[in-house]
Amino acid sequence: MSVPEIVVDGRGLEPPEPMERVVAALDVLQPGQRIRFLIHRQPYPLYDLLNRYHYRYETTPLAEGGFAILIFQP
Amino acid sequence: MNPPGLSFEQAPPFSVPLRFFLTAPWFLVSAALLMLWQGPELFASRWLPATLALTHLLTLGFMAQVMLGAVLQILPVVVGVVVPRPRLTAMLIHVPLTLGALALASAFLCGIPVWFQSALGLLGLGFSVALVAINRALWRAPVVNDTVIALRCALGALLVTVGLGLLLGGYFGWGLPLPVVAMTDLHAAWGLVGWTVLLVAGVAYQVVPMFQITPPYPHRLSRGFAPLMAALLAVWSVLALSDWETAARLAGLALAVGVALFALTTLSLLTRRRRKIGDPTLGYWRTGMASLLAGALLWLSALLIPALAQAPQVEWLLGILLIFGFAVAVINGMLYKIVPFLAWFHLQAQLLRRAKVPNMKQLLPEVRIRRQWWAYLAALLLLLAAAVAPAVFTYPAALALGVAGIGLGVNLSSVWRIYRQVIANP
User: Fold this and answer.
1) Residues of chain A by 3-state class (helix, strand, coil), percent to 5
2) Does the pLDDT of residue B4 top 60, yes or no?
3) Using one digit for the tens of pLDDT, what is the confidence trace for B250-278?
4) What average pLDDT score do residues B240-258 get?
5) A26: chain B residues, CB-CB within 8 Å
6) CB contact (8 A) between residue B5 and residue A45
7) Is the predicted pLDDT of residue B297 greater than 80, yes or no?
8) Neighbour count for residue B320 (Cβ, 10 Å)
9) Contact between B360 and A12 using a beta-carbon 8 Å cutoff
């Protein structure tokens, strides 16, 4: 049975609140589960943190502006 | 897979910018002590030695201190270039700059040439290291965006400011024959309009849309503002030194209009925030930009109405608006964004999944920011009042300035204390 993805909508929030929410989601992320992070601009510091801890991620631009970032367990 | 641009991967150790940020507030306190000591007579002229000491405690001790520390921090992030040996470089800038600012203030107060000579040596060393390190990074930048262009212009202006400052130091320290009045005006204009306004502009292009959730700056402004202002400053300087009064006045008018345009654009962006909840640092940005606009308009009026330029209060008001109303406000507000974020980020980078890291509001509660904000605002209004009625307002202004400085220093140190506690006992 697949675990539902965790959606974190950080659009319109003041930095680093979106990043704080993603980090909180990383803490509860189950094996095989992923995070869908919606954000109004490229979250460069987050990429650094994800790289440092070997999370995989994929960024896609959203049609309505902003980005969706899928984050997977290392 | 990873997009180019801002990255923290090359961010320097937390101690690199922090040493500047934790020192700077105490220069506001030392400026307040100087005001208490000198009293209302300080406001008699901008040329009094004590006034020059006060100015440099604020511009070197507070402004340059934070600005250089912040540039060292953002270079790797915004420009993507690492400053070599960041800890050593930071130390070689921070220590001489701090001692040099104190030595220069003492030199003005006691008037002894050897103090000017030591201040000159210290400041020359600190700024040389800063200019070499930062310039090397800026000209190697792999990403050239509007911020990098503005930073290059700001750095060029800092070079001129420091060069003129060292020459003026040569006048006091060794009796170099120089046109001191004209050179002091150039030194102040390059320092405030060149280095300070252009650096703030370059940083604002990034942080105003990011932290205040506003639309971006109009591209034409963010691309053209800094190079145009730097060119205008150069033209104005040549005209002013060659006594072409009308042409110099025209160039001065253009500069003031440019500054006003930047301030107005930023103010209008701040009214279009997508987030309606009040941000405690919004007040600092609004006050900073309103002061910059008021300063530009006052400067314009003084250029158009020569009688106004003769009044000593106008020079004082202009100095207070630009230094304390604009630069100190924006820097103070930015420090509240930078320091807790860096503490949180460095904790997160070290402790992710191993320990719970306090969030930004736990690192620095908003109520503490708001308390210091009221002290800052009181200090600004009382300083402006003191320029007009020194007998009544000098001491209250000095007290408010001291409280604002202590508040900022204590608030920033408390973030550092929590950071060390969490690192020690995760």
Assistant:
1) 30, 30, 40
2) no
3) 999 999 999 999 999 999 999 998 877 77
4) 93
5) 352-353
6) no
7) yes
8) 22
9) no
| A→B interface, C-beta within 8 Å | 12-17, 20, 23, 26-27, 40-42, 44-45, 47-49, 51-53, 57-59
For residue B10, being part of any structural domain is answered with: no
Residue B210 at interface with chain A, using a CB cutoff of 8 Å:
yes
Residue B240, domain CATH: 1.20.210.10
pLDDT tens-digit series, residues B66-76: 999 999 988 87
Which range of residues forms the domain containing residue B139?
15-420
Does ipTM surpass 0.85 in this model?
Answer: no
Instruction: Judge whether residue B383 has pLDDT over 90.
Output: yes
The answer to whether residue B344 neighbours chain A at the CB level (below 8 Å) is yes
Residue of B nearest to A19 (CA): B345
A-chain CB neighbours of B274 within 8 Å are 12
Residue-level length of chain B: 426
CA distance B361 to B343: 12
For chain A, which domains are there? Answer: 6-72 (3.30.110.40)
Does residue B81 carry a pLDDT above 90?
no
What residues of chain A lie within 8 A of the CB of B7, using their CB? Answer: 44-45, 47-48
pLDDT tens-digit map of A25-69: 998 999 899 999 999 888 877 887 888 889 999 999 999 889 999
